[in-house]
Amino acid sequence: MSKNPIAPSIKKFPPRQRPDGELVVCLGDSITHGQVSADWVTALMRADPSRAFINAGVGGELAWNISRRLDAVIALRPDVVTLLVGTNDVSATFSPQAERMYRLLQRIPQTPNLAWYIENVDVILGRLSRETSARVIVLDIPPVGEDVDSEINKKVLTYNAALRLTAAKYGIEPLPLRERLVDLIPAVHEVPKLEVKISKVISTTGRASLAHAFGKSWDHISRKNGYAFTIDGVHLADRGGQVVEELVRSNLV
Questions:
Q1: Quick one: pLDDT band at residue 1, thresholds 50, 70, 90?
Q2: Cα(162)–Cα(140) distance, rounded to whole angstroms?
Q3: What average pLDDT does this structure show over 230-236?
Q4: What pLDDT score was predicted for residue 168?
Q5: Which residue(s) pair with 136 in the sheet?
Q6: Which residue from 82, 126, 143, 240 has the fewest beta carbons nearer than 10 Å?
Q7: Phi-psi sector, 50: left (phi>0), alpha (psi -120 to 50), beta
Q8: Kind and range of the H or E element at 213?
Q9: Separation between Cα atoms, residue 120 and residue 66, nearest integer Å
C-alpha cells in the first residue's frame, strides 16, 4: 500500500459495491476533486482513518451535471454525503463566451441562472433525502475571485442566500465556507483581477498545475500569483483546502 494514499474516486467502485465501515461520499466539482487544487478529501481521509471516504468530485460540473449522476452515489448507500457545488453555476454566467464553453464541455441544456441552480440543488437534496439514510452536509459557494466586492461575488452572495433557503427545506444549514475563506484575505491586500475570459482561467490553472507537478506547493503558487487562499481565483490553495477540511471534519463528529 502507498505510504500516502489518496481518497479513491467514485469511478473505482462498481455499482452497489462499497467499502466497509462508515462511508462518506464527497460530491462536487473540481474544488472537491482536488486534482488542480488542494485535495481536502484526502486530507480528511488521512486525519480520520475510522471512516471510508470516496471522492465524487468532477471538474467543471454544474449542479445539473451532479443531479444526473446521483445513481452511483445512492447505490453506495453512504452514511454521509458532502455537497459543494455552485462555483461553475456562477462562473457560467460570466459572459456569453463562458456559457458557450459550458454548453460545449458540460452539455448544459439551457442558459444558466439562479432559478435553474436552485432547481437542481433541490433535486440533489430531495433524492438524497428520499433514497438514502445519509446525513447530508452542504457547504456554501466560495468566492469566485478574491475581490469580494466584485459583481460576480455579489452574485455568489445571492446564490448562497437561495442555497440556504433550499437546504432549510431538508433541515440542513450550509456550512459558512465563503465567510471562512474571506477571513483569510489580509486587511491590506492587492487583489489580482479575475480574468473573465475562460481561456485565460484555463491557462492560469494549467500553469499552476504544472508548477505543482514539479514540486511547488499550492500555497507557494498562490502567493506567487498574489492570492490569499486560491491558486487562480477559483481553485483552492492548501490554506483554502484546510478550511474546507476543518469545516467538514467538525461536522462529522
A1: very low
A2: 10
A3: 93
A4: 98
A5: 81
A6: 126
A7: alpha
A8: helix 198-213
A9: 8
Q: Please, what is the end-to-end C-alpha distance for the chain in angstroms? A: 28
pLDDT at residue 109 tops 70: yes
Angle, nearest 10°, between helix axes 114-131 and 151-168? Answer: 30
pLDDT score for 15: 57
Task: List the grid coordinates of 141.
Answer: 459557494
**The pTM of the whole model exceeds 0.85:** yes
Average pLDDT of the residues in 219-242:
94
CA distances from 236 to 30, 132, 163, 228 (A): 10, 30, 21, 10
The C-alpha atoms of residue 123 and residue 85 are separated, in whole angstroms, by 13
CA-to-CA distance for 31 and 142, rounded, in angstroms?
10
Cα 55 from Cα 39, distance rounded (Å) = 10
Among 152, 124, 161, 111, CA closest to 234: 152
Q: How confident is the model at residue 2 (pLDDT cuts 50, 70, 90)?
A: very low
Find the helix or strand (DSSP H, E) in which 80 lies: strand 80-84
H helix or E strand, kind and range, residue 84: strand 80-84
Of residues 205 and 68, more confidence is placed in: 68
Instruction: Return the closest-CA partner of residue 235 out of 34, 28, 93.
Output: 34
CA distance 186 to 206: 26
Strand, coil or helix: what is 185?
A: coil
